[in-house]
Write a sequence for this structure.
């Protein structure tokens, strides 16, 4: 059931904090005395008082107040009627952050958070165990802890194991690898042999994987041992080997060889996608494949001030609590900006614990971050602090966060505790810095341990719940922050962190776990011909039917995109997703929101599997939000969308960013990062005069109407305009990396053609049909 509304506008929940762990009001380098507490409510009252005095939200006190610059660029760029229709007002053009860390966000610290010689190490209480996470979990001067042995989950053995099954399988594998030429059959035969061990004696699988990995130099001996340890990947791979179908009619073995082993190693091609015929689709949609003839999109209530809703879309924070200021930021080995990172041109990596000599560092890790590193605490919280000032001093009405809070890291350094620590500390920060507007989150592929993995409910022998600790923890946190009530939180537990909620009259937000179409989720290598083995797309479809019956508009929220160049998602599930969008857009589905790529991208969905890319055939658009993390080689950014309060369609969005190349000089100034205005989607892309005459959807004077939303037709027309006006693709590429000097240009005919094709490809199947090699600006 939805949370009761407080007004016509989006609900802003009271900041009562009875379910958030009490937070001490002091700063210290030792663990907190839990008897000294204060609530989030009290802290926000203090913030509100400061905001009244200072005229902005600012928690730091040891540096000059941040500055906010305004202009009317966005309003001036749009026709005058757009100003009234879209709720434009004075647009913030820049925000200069404070150099001081907002220490009041956390109750206490393991180090001095005011020092810029190291990143703050906040003390965070594990709400489930009612104890603090230890400093060793995220201390950058200590090599990271890995997962505990208790995190290993094996499949149950089936039948009686032969006494020498392990040695027998080792011999078979050696014979296969030495007597056969390197072809796809070599790989699939090896899987069949290994499956015998996984089913009879699963706990012997990690040792076998380590031995084979080392023996055939798949990785270094040390990396093999760490990667395939039972609690890292060893026991998970035992499950995949046990549960996969390696029979002649199955494609599981080919998928594993192509994706997990790698096509260059296995010489296995990706199987052809399953054809979803009429019989399948008729059953999937219960014989209701045709949408209703009429549907009212004006289902919401206007805001009291008549303006659009302001909705923040942010993604991929990837905070690195182990960020090591002064470490190697341009590493060739390890995770950059870490104590054990090094550049092989200056160091061989054989050094004792601690900091490399400065002479052995090619690029020092700076306090605010670097291009090849994930976001330090300072950058992550500075960006969150910037949102309200960038929105003209008003809190956003709500936030969509499309996943990936946890750092990119080697598998052996990711643990359940690290995931919980990151989630809890960041959600508390978001609640404090963004205010009372609800936050709707999607789980990202890095928001689990091991990273990338999500196990389906259909797995046998109780193994379906091996990642339920993650869904349960997210449900508990989202309820504690006040974003969900208990009934809504229970959905999160039963739908792999997915849910369906109505935060405002006529709007339904449906979040799904997109790891179930992510190619790096090894659990997707089971039942590969089933496009919905997890049941997530069944849940989505059923909720869309319910929304259609109730006359609601829907936002679909997830993490991994369904298309672009086809390099991230899997064919079969994203093909089914495309059919679902075709059935329910545009009358029910208003928009789709993803993240994952760290880049500013979009996908247009067309009718009939995209057989026609004409603007009049466009049905839906998905937005991929830019990342807050700079890695790899992009500038951090956030997006504030203007949403029509009655139709829930995007009228415009405004993108803001900060320049990473300025970070090294910031410690010598009196301020932090400067967040600049990058562009307005309507202003940048709304001129279609070059292509209008030949468009299937011409508009008056070639200018997108001021009162029209930025719907699928708008973005489809943009691709038509790009085909005529090639320079527009290069402008898009600049925005893709947020004006990063590291982004390659897109000026050749091949690049222009490829990028337009990616924009028009809402499924993996379509994306793979495009020319490859131009999908990303990262390097």
């Amino acid at each position: 059931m939805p949370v009761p509304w407080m007004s016509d506008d989006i609900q802003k929940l009271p900041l009562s904090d009875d379910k958030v762990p009490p937070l001490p009001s002091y700063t210290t380098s030792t663990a907190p005395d839990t008897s000294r507490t204060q609530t989030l409510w009290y802290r926000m009252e203090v913030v509100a008082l400061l905001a009244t005095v200072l005229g902005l939200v600012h928690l730091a006190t040891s540096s000059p107040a941040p500055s906010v610059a305004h202009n009317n660029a966005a309003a001036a760029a749009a026709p005058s009627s757009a100003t009234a229709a879209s709720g434009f007002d004075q647009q913030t053009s820049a925000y200069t952050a404070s150099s001081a860390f907002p220490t009041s966000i956390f109750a206490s610290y393991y180090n001095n958070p005011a020092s810029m010689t190291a990143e703050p190490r906040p003390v965070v209480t594990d709400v489930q165990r009612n104890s603090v996470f230890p400093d060793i979990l995220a201390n950058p001067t200590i090599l990271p802890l890995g997962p505990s042995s208790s995190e290993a989950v094996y499949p149950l053995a089936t039948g009686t194991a032969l006494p020498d099954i392990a040695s027998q399988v080792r011999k078979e594998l050696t014979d296969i690898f030495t007597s056969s030429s390197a072809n796809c059959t070599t790989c699939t035969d090896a899987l069949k042999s290994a499956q015998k061990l996984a089913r009879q004696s699963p706990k012997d699988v990690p040792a076998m994987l380590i031995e084979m990995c080392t023996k055939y130099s798949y990785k270094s001996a040390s990396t093999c041992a760490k990667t395939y340890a039972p609690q890292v990947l060893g026991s998970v791979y035992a499950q995949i080997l046990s549960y996969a179908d390696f029979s002649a009619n199955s494609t599981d073995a080919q998928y594993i060889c192509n994706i997990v082993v790698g096509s260059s190693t296995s010489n296995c091609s990706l199987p052809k996608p399953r054809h979803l015929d009429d019989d399948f689709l008729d059953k999937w949609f219960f014989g209701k494949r045709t949408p209703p003839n009429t549907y009212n999109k004006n289902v919401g209530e206007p805001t009291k001030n008549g303006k659009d809703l302001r909705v923040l879309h942010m993604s991929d924070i990837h905070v690195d609590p182990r960020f090591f200021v002064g470490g190697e930021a341009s590493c060739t080995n390890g995770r950059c900006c870490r104590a054990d990172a090094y550049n092989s041109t200056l160091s061989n990596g054989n050094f004792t614990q601690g900091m490399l000599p400065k002479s052995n560092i090619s690029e020092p890790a700076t306090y605010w971050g670097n291009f090849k590193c994930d976001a330090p605490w300072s950058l992550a919280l500075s960006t969150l602090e910037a949102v309200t000032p960038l929105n003209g001093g008003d809190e956003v009405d709500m936030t969509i966060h499309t996943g990936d809070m946890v750092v990119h890291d080697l598998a052996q350094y990711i643990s359940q505790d690290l995931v919980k620590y990151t989630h809890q500390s960041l959600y508390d920060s978001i609640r404090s810095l963004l205010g009372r507007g609800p936050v709707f989150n999607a789980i990202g592929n890095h928001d689990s341990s091991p990273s990338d993995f999500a196990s389906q409910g259909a797995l046998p022998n109780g193994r379906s719940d091996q990642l339920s600790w993650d869904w349960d923890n997210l449900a508990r946190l989202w309820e504690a922050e006040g974003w969900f009530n208990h009934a809504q939180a229970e959905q999160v537990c039963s739908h792999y962190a997915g849910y369906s909620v109505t935060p405002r009259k006529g709007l339904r937000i449906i979040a799904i776990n997109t790891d179930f179409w992510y190619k790096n989720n090894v659990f997707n290598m089971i039942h590969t011909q089933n496009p919905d083995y997890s049941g997530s797309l069944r849940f989505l479809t059923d909720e869309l039917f319910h929304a259609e019956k109730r006359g609601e508009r829907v936002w679909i929220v997830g993490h991994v995109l369904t298309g672009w160049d086809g390099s991230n998602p899997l064919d079969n599930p994203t093909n089914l997703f495309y059919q679902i969008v075709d059935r329910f857009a545009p009358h029910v589905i208003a928009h789709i929101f993803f993240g994952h790529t760290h880049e500013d991208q979009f996908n247009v969905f067309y009718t009939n599997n995209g057989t026609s890319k004409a603007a009049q055939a466009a049905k839906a658009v998905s937005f991929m939000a830019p990342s807050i993390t700079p890695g790899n080689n992009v500038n951090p950014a956030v997006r504030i969308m203007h949403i029509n309060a009655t139709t829930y369609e995007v009228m415009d969005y405004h993108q803001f960013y900060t320049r990473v190349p300025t970070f090294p000089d910031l410690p010598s100034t009196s301020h932090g990062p400067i967040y600049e205005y990058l562009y307005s989607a309507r202003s940048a892309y709304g001129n279609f005069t070059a292509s209008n005459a030949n468009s299937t959807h011409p508009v008056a004077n070639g200018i997108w109407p001021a009162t029209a939303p930025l719907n699928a037709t708008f973005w489809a027309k943009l691709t038509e305009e790009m085909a005529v006006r090639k320079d527009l693709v290069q402008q898009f590429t600049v925005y893709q990396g947020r004006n990063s000097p590291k982004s390659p240009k897109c000026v050749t005919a091949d690049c222009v053609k490829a990028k337009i094709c990616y924009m028009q490809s809402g499924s993996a199947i379509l994306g793979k049909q495009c020319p490859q090699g131009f999908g990303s600006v990262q390097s």
Observations:
- The two ends are 45 Å apart (CA to CA).
- The domain at 309-321+380-768 is CATH 3.60.21.10 (Purple Acid Phosphatase; chain A, domain 2).
- Confidence is low (pLDDT under 50) at residues 1-63, 71-90.
